[in-house]
Amino acid sequence: MTGAADALIRVESVSVAYPVPGGKVQALTDVSLEVRRGEWLTIIGHNGSGKSTLAKLFNGLIIPGRGSVTVDGLSTADDEQRKRIRQIVGMVFQDPDNQIVATIVEEDVAFGPENLGLPRAEIIERVADAMRRLEIEDLRQRAPHQLSGGQKQRVAIAGVLAMRPAVLVLDESTAMLDPSGRTEVLQAAQALHRDGVTIVAITHFMGEVVLADRVVVLAEGRVALEAQPRDLFAQPERLRELELDVPQVTEIAARLRARGVDVGLVPLTVAELADAYVRLPRAAA
After folding, report:
1. Rounded CA Rg of the chain
2. pLDDT digits (tens, 9 = 90+) for 231-263
3. Which of 47-51, 68-72, 135-139, 253-257 has the highest mean predicted lDDT (pLDDT)?
């Protein structure tokens, strides 16, 4: 487990409110958390809990009304530091069509490095590397509108990756995809994580939470829970109080336990549940 010294992003006592006619709506209240270098952090919560607002704090798209956000020691409130922060923290949003700006995939992936003013040779190298890592080299000359949702989202991630961020924030990036597309994006994110990229995933798919090293649960704009996935899903009643579900395998294990069949540790995958079940004494099974 990494410690405080490994924190790449620090959110300290942050509050954010949005103006509305006649007043304001409080999105986050006194939120503090860290994103640790090299980890996979997942943030969940019911609709309106403040997940996307929190995500936009990480690279200065939103500046908190109170509190502070620092990225590798740089303050998001400092205009001069924000450009560097956005090279460190790359973001991929929910709708891939809103992130693609070019008419050819290769040109879209090159857009970010070109805006950094990098030499042409380095842009070419970065684009090739990003497309290779996202396994979209065969889409190089394709028009984005011809691609599937999963392919478009991988193109969007490649465009961010070409800027060489240390952190990739996936803000509901699988929400609009079919199961096949979600699988494509998650496999790409897992490969990047293995290569050392820090991942922050905001999601409402509880099955995706099992990929995390650590999970933060938001409720009404506050941090309600923080735990590793297995410890989190060992609290199904608390999750339901927070208007959240548990993965199907966890629910099955809980029902078995209620019937006197204890499969041991809280399972996070079908494979774990199946393995635990076949190891049960014959009479229990």
Report:
1. 20
2. 999 888 899 899 998 888 888 888 888 888 888
3. 68-72
Phi-psi domain of 172 (left: phi exceeds 0; alpha: psi -120 through 50; beta: other):
left
Strand ranges inside the chain, DSSP E: 7-20, 23-36, 40-45, 66-71, 74-75, 89-92, 167-171, 198-202, 214-219, 222-227
Give the separation between CA 81 and CA 60, rounded to whole angstroms. 10
Would you state the structure tokens that stand for residue 157, as one six-digit string?
């991630």
* CB burial string 84-104: b at 16+ within 10 A, e below: ebbebbbbbbbebeebbeeee
Read off the tokens for 205: 């798919």
Q: What is the pLDDT of residues 95-140, one digit of tens each?
A: 888 889 999 999 999 999 998 889 999 999 999 999 998 889 999 9
Indicate whether 3 pLDDT > 80. Answer: no
Contact partners, residue 143, CB within 8 Å, separation at least 6: 103, 104, 105
* 3-state SS record for 179-223: HHHHHHHHHHHHHHHHCCCEEEEECCCHHHHCCCCEEEEEECCEE
Nearest to 172 by CA among 281, 104, 94: 94
The top-level CATH class assigned to 39-63+75-228 is alpha beta
- Counting every residue, how long is the chain? 285
**Rounded to the nearest 5 degrees, what angle is found at the Cα of 151, between the Cα atoms of 150 and 152?**
90
Domain boundaries in the chain?
Answer: 39-63+75-228
Whole-structure pTM value? 0.88
pLDDT at 228: 95
Residue of 70, 232, 93 whose CA lies nearest to 152: 93
